[in-house]
Amino acid sequence: MILPLSNSDKKRLLTPIKKTILQYKMIEDGDRVAIGLSGGKDSSTLLYLLTLLRRQLPFDFELIPISLSLGFKDFDISPLKTFVEELGHELYLKETNISQIVFEYKQEKNPCSLCANLRRGILFEYAASLNCNKLAYGHHLDDGIETFLMNLIYGGKLGVFKPMTHMDRSNITLIRPMLAIEEKTIKQFVKSKNIPVIHNPCPANKNTKREEMKELVNNLSMKYPDLRKNFMTGAMNVQEEDFWKINR
């Protein structure tokens, strides 16, 4: 069941996501948008907000909630299924053996990259099989900053994921509608609306490079309160001539 948003939630959640969608033309009339649901706070918030926006945006589109079962034992998907149905949707679930591939067959010491690649490939393939032309991820502003820092510190490059990326192989466009929303706002929203959050059973959970970057961002923002806002402004106003590019 969709509950009315407070004025504060409209300002901090609905207005930014609506502006981002319209600014980048992420969703258009007739789109069939798959939403990758993990059971976590971000993707569930995305589904909630897009369900609300279907009533407000001046065009019609479909929402197709999809989720992957990664093969972990004792992973109860029923709270997510109930949540999706209460919002008026059907949850499409794809069974996989990703956990066995990553932790048993490959025995990866740094499993996150392989797991992400496997999940991404299966998600796009599954979305295509459901005749979707868009796939929405629940990435938010903090994710963008953390990715930028990971690329810089661990990869030696300057870069961050894009709001939209077309995947030629699957002919699906990946969209990230929540890029202008801070993680703390999502946490507050999930708590206020009692949105179910399923515990991540992955052995690597909370023990990753991304968690290091999350802590770094939080520490920096305590000293520089405008960090998130300034990052978003900078990411939208990149000047290539400001970098040390070598002509080859």
Please characterize this protein's 3D structure.
By secondary structure, the chain is an alpha/beta fold. Helices cover 46% and strands 12% of the residues. The chain contains 9 helices and 6 strands. It has helices spanning 7-24, 41-53, 78-86, 98-105, 112-129, 141-155, 183-192, 209-223, 227-235, and strands at 32-37, 62-69, 92-95, 134-136, 164-167, 172-175. It has a 6-stranded mixed beta sheet with strand order 3-2-1-4-6-5, sandwiched between helices. Helix 6 (141-155) packs across helix 8. The longest helix is centred in the first third of the chain and has 18 residues, at 7-24. The N and C termini lie far apart (57 Å). The relative contact order is 0.16.
Strand and helix map with partners:
Layout: H1 7-24, E1 32-37, H2 41-53, E2 62-69, H3 78-86, E3 92-95, H4 98-105, H5 112-129, E4 134-136, H6 141-155, E5 164-167, E6 172-175, H7 183-192, H8 209-223, H9 227-235
Parallel strand pairs: 1-2, 1-4, 2-3, 4-6
Antiparallel strand pairs: 5-6
Helix pairs in contact: 6-8
